[in-house]
Amino acid sequence: MGLLGNVSECDDLRYHLRKKDFINRFVMLLDSQSDGIEVSYNSAGILAHLISDALPLWDDPSEPYENDKARILMKMDEAISRWDLNSKRNINYRSFKPILRLLRNIDIVWQAQYWAVWALANLTRVQGQ
């Protein structure tokens, strides 16, 4: 999942993940408790990047998601709200730029920013140095 998260952070590659089958799988994995919160966290991160694009996921004419918008956002909110902020995670960020990009864009849905704030809060709390 981490590698797909890296793909979702890259503007030039992210479009490969904008397929209905992938999106449905990422939404399903939001409920996963496999490997602690890792699978759910990475799924939410991928979705956060996909819904923050200049062409948001549900406005893509090639893969219409409008009927799924409320469900996707609700599932993201529920998943993030379940996670323990003190969770120790197996992650190594080379840069916070992709996360900070989500916070700079005030026009995206708050669930994407919720994921970004949670990610930074967890990293600074658990891996403070």
Automatic annotation (TrEMBL):
Q: Which UniProt keywords apply?
A: Ubl conjugation pathway
Provide GO CC annotations from the record.
Cul2-RING ubiquitin ligase complex
Q: What is the lineage of its organism?
A: Eukaryota, Metazoa, Ecdysozoa, Arthropoda, Chelicerata
Q: Which PANTHER family match?
A: PROTEIN ZER-1 HOMOLOG, PTHR12904
- Which Gene3D superfamilies does this UniProt record tie to the protein? Leucine-rich Repeat Variant (1.25.10.10)
Q: Can you say what this protein is called? A: Protein zer-1 homolog-like C-terminal domain-containing protein
Locate the transmembrane regions by residue number: none
Domain (Protein zer-1 homolog-like C-terminal): residue spans on this chain: 1-127
Keyword Transmembrane helix on entry: no
**Pfam families (alphabetical):** ZER1-like_2nd
